[in-house]
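TICKET: design request
STATUS: open
ATTACHED STRUCTURE:
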């Protein structure tokens, strides 16, 4: 499954178009999935939680020897592919697939930006770019185009959440961004 969380912002004046845009994003992700499945240069690596990561065929062999898992990140509202590795001192350390593909070693302060569509499980080399924290956070700042507290989930449903007094409250998932936004507004009244 793809993480469909978009990076662009949603403006209230565009409310009439948000449903169509959401449908377009889902359609785009389905086309991406079909294309990746048919593309001999793209391979899928299975993860936990019913997810998978897309990688270039040239990286598939070296990556597929490891057991990868899908890890949900609350900050970015998306899944990432990661595995564990044993350090020389015997402790375990997490290895993010996109960092491994880009050759960033543990301790390297640079980050990897998923440039196309914000799909953090699309680890095809052309979708990855080494960036500073500032460059990467600029891309994440306007992540939800569905309004504050509304996020498109990998399932295609829209999650609604609200923050009051510093506490984040999960309000449920909904079929449309309008329903998720309404639930948030009702909660905040």
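STATUS: resolved
RESOLUTION: sequence designed for all positions
ATTACHED SEQUENCE:
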């Amino acid at each position: 499954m793809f993480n469909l969380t978009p990076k662009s912002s949603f403006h209230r004046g565009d409310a009439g178009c948000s449903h169509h845009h959401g449908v377009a994003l889902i359609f785009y992700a389905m086309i991406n999935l079909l294309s990746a499945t048919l593309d001999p240069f793209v391979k899928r690596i299975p993860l936990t939680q019913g997810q998978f990561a897309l990688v270039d065929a040239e990286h598939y062999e070296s990556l597929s020897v490891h057991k990868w898992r899908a890890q949900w990140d609350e900050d970015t509202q998306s899944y990432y592919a990661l595995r564990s590795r044993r350090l020389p001192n015997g402790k375990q350390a997490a290895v993010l697939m996109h960092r491994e593909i880009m050759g960033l070693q543990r301790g390297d302060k640079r980050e990897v930006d998923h440039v196309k569509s914000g799909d953090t499980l699309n680890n095809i080399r052309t979708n990855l770019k080494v960036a500073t924290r500032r460059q990467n956070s600029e891309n994440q700042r306007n992540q939800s185009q569905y309004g504050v507290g509304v996020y498109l989930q990998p399932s295609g449903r829209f999650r609604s959440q609200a923050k009051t007094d510093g506490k984040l409250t999960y309000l449920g998932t909904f079929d449309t961004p309008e329903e998720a936004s309404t639930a948030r507004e009702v909660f905040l009244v």
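CLOSING REMARK: The first strand starts at residue 42 and ends at 46. The beta strands are 42-46, 52-56, 69-73, 78-86, 92-96, 111-114, 128-131, 150-152, 158-164, 167-174.
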